[in-house]
């Protein structure tokens, strides 16, 4: 599956693509593709941006990302020096225009609806992982049957959305590159002060134009987005480095005011940083 700056075209004459990626880090450019992807991650952890939202991913996650939903994986190569992902790519019409419309497959409608915002599977994961383990030795007919089994299992499972808003229009390559540059800069520089003038320059836009552009495509301001990145990274430090004080975590994640950090943390996570550490 060839990767372009923002689009991944489906290989010719293949209705279903099964792909295994084993790398030091996953492809870290913001991208979208027409295919829905169902991914199992045996190894690796890091940050996942889907649509307007920042998430963590870790080993043994099962993730579903809908067609044309912008997303990017940012691997944490310190926490996990190797990354591995097994993915099924397909779309609503892969097996014929009306295949998923037949009455026997009516239960799949919920799957496709939820995939529009992306989802993390929270139950039945061992059964789904078991199905993924079969794929490497299967022929195409068997892989299609396994895909239907996985969709059925996901439909029966408890899930959590990966985003709350997805820009409905497909991005052009130029737009994809611009948003990728903004996301990449924010994920790499979140611990430092970032001004509106600075990030507008990264996007090669005026400040006012950038604010309108970003809000339209993510349904939030850039600084709301930046705070979410900082809080997600704070969560990792709180759990993985218990020797760090909450005050130091706050500083390392770009907050210069502990009271503001505590307030934003509670807004996004529903508890204080200290309570979060106790839970995990």
From TrEMBL:
What PROSITE patterns does its record include?
Answer: HTH_ARAC_FAMILY_2
Q: Which Pfam families match?
A: HTH_18
InterPro entries xref list: Homeodomain-like_sf, HTH_AraC, RmlC-like_jellyroll, RmlC_Cupin_sf
Identify the residues that the record assigns to the HTH araC/xylS-type domain, covering every copy: 180-279
Sorted alphabetically, which keywords does the UniProt record give?
DNA-binding, Transcription, Transcription regulation
Q: Name one GO molecular function term.
A: sequence-specific DNA binding
Name of this protein: AraC family transcriptional regulator
């Amino acid at each position: 599956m060839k990767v372009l700056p923002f689009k991944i075209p489906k290989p010719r004459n293949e209705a279903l693509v099964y792909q295994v990626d084993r790398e030091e880090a996953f492809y870290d450019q913001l991208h979208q593709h027409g295919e829905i992807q169902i991914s199992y991650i045996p190894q690796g952890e890091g940050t996942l941006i889907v649509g307007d939202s920042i998430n963590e991913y870790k080993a043994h996650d099962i993730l579903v990302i809908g067609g044309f939903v912008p997303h990017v994986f940012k691997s944490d190569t310190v926490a996990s020096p190797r990354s591995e992902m097994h993915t099924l790519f397909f779309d609503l019409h892969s097996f014929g225009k009306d295949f998923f419309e037949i009455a026997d497959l009516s239960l799949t409608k919920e799957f496709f609806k939820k995939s529009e915002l992306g989802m993390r599977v929270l139950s039945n994961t061992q059964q789904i992982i078991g199905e993924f383990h079969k794929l490497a030795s299967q022929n195409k007919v068997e892989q299609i049957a396994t895909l239907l089994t996985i969709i059925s299992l996901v439909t029966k499972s408890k899930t959590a959305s990966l985003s709350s808003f997805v820009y409905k229009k497909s991005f052009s390559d130029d737009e994809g590159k611009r948003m990728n540059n903004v996301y990449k800069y924010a994920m790499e520089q979140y611990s430092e002060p970032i001004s509106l003038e600075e990030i507008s320059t990264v996007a090669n836009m005026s400040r006012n134009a950038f604010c309108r552009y970003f809000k339209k495509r993510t349904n939030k301001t850039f600084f709301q987005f930046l705070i979410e990145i900082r809080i997600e990274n704070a969560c990792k430090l709180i759990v993985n480095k218990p020797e760090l004080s909450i005050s130091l975590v706050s500083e390392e994640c770009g907050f210069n005011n502990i009271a503001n950090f505590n307030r934003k943390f509670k807004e996004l996570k529903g508890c204080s940083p200290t309570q979060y550490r106790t839970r995990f």
